[in-house]
Amino acid sequence: MKISIIGIGRVGSSTAFAIVNKALVEELVLIDMNKNLAEGEALDLLHASSFHKRTVIRAGDYEDITGSNIIIITAGAAQKPGETRLDLVLKNAKIIQEISQNIKKYAPNSIVINITNPVDVMSYVAWKTTGFESNRVIGTGTILDTARLRALIGYNCGISPMSIHAYIIGEHGDSELAVWSSAMIGGVPITNFCEDCPFEQKCNLQLEEIFEEVKNSAYKIIEKKGATNYGIASATAALAEAIIKNEGRVFTPSVLVDNVYIGYPAIINKDGIERIVNISLNEEENEKFEVSKNIIKEYIEKINI
Ligand SMILES: NC(=O)C1=CN([C@@H]2O[C@H](COP(=O)(O)OP(=O)(O)OC[C@H]3O[C@@H](n4cnc5c(N)ncnc54)[C@H](O)[C@@H]3O)[C@@H](O)[C@H]2O)C=CC1
Ligand SMILES: CC(=O)C(=O)O
């Protein structure tokens, strides 16, 4: 198995590290416009790989992505404190177009995972520019937001986040929404879960407060440390693992729904998106999802691709 990562900044290098630690591939190619950076990261990661699996890790040019099973895109501008993801749209669209042309040329059979923000709009750009079937162009969508939600609920309830079945869908951004109507913990609707709380100090899960914290996580972290990298790196490594191991696992990637890329539950297997899972939404959730979809549509129209 071979993965290439384009963009080896904070997110790209952390993603490479997560992939090395999962021992997913025999070959990992790192590409960045800053060649020294890619070379330095490749060398450092090669040393790390000796604790896991014999892996060829090298910096390269676009010719070197040939034969990749998966290409991960993280190149481009990141938010500065106070900026929204959508503010990056014009800067990053050109970069994603150029990268996608190279992917089409050198790795026409690969599965593309796009991380670069605004992730829904940029995944659409990658899909249009590569001309690949939509199952082979996947955005990380709201996988990270869903992980944040589960982590916070798990922390509050003293439960593994993996046992919490709750999803964030929509734009990976300010218009995303939590699907509380079908959220469950151990088969119990999340809205009833506090009834059996064993703790003396009950927190009475404040779902809207938790959602606001999830939605604003990136702003908070960027304010404090300048970027987010570990959460998205783990999310992307898990997504790549689901493809490589043909897991049939449900994530909330950015996928094609009504001609827009948007965060939505989907099953991931060796072909990328196996299929979308039609989650049931109540009226309010459905309205919010439509609003979110329209925001993404508006930004896709702005870049006129
Ligand atoms: N989807 C998600 O959940 C998340 C998305 N992101 C996004 O990931 C992207 C990267 O973020 P960071 O790694 O923090 O930024 P960074 O600035 O640390 O790294 C970006 C890298 O891209 C490289 N680059 C820029 N243009 C390039 C080109 N044309 N070809 C090759 N390399 C190029 C730069 O040299 C730099 O090393 C941003 O758009 C950010 O908003 C970040 C975290 C989570
Ligand atoms: C930066 C970003 O998109 C995030 O951490 O959610």
In short:
It catalyses: (S)-lactate + NAD(+) = pyruvate + NADH + H(+). With 305 residues, the chain is an alpha/beta fold. It folds into two domains: 2-139, Rossmann fold; 142-302, Lactate dehydrogenase/glycoside hydrolase, family 4, C-terminal (L-2-Hydroxyisocaproate Dehydrogenase, Chain A, domain 2, Alpha-Beta Complex).
Structure commentary:
By secondary structure, the protein is of the alpha/beta class. It folds into two domains: 2-139, Rossmann fold; 142-302, L-2-Hydroxyisocaproate Dehydrogenase, Chain A, domain 2 (Alpha-Beta Complex). The protein is 41% helix and 18% strand. The chain has nine helices and 16 strands. It has a six-stranded parallel sheet with strand order 3-2-1-4-5-6, with helices on both faces. A three-stranded antiparallel sheet has the order 7-10-11. It has a three-stranded antiparallel sheet with strand order 12-15-16. Strand 13 (254-257) and strand 14 form a beta hairpin. Helix 1 (10-21) packs parallel to helix 2 (35-49), helix 1 crosses helix 8 and helix 5 crosses helix 6. The relative contact order is 0.14. The model has no long low-confidence stretch (mean pLDDT 97). The structure holds 1,4-dihydronicotinamide adenine dinucleotide and pyruvic acid (PYR). 1,4-dihydronicotinamide adenine dinucleotide (NAI) binds at residues 6-12, 32-34, 37, 74-79, 88, 92, 95, 98, 115-117, 119, 140, 144, 172, 227-228, 232. Residues 79, 85, 117, 144, 218, 228, 232 line the site of pyruvic acid (PYR).
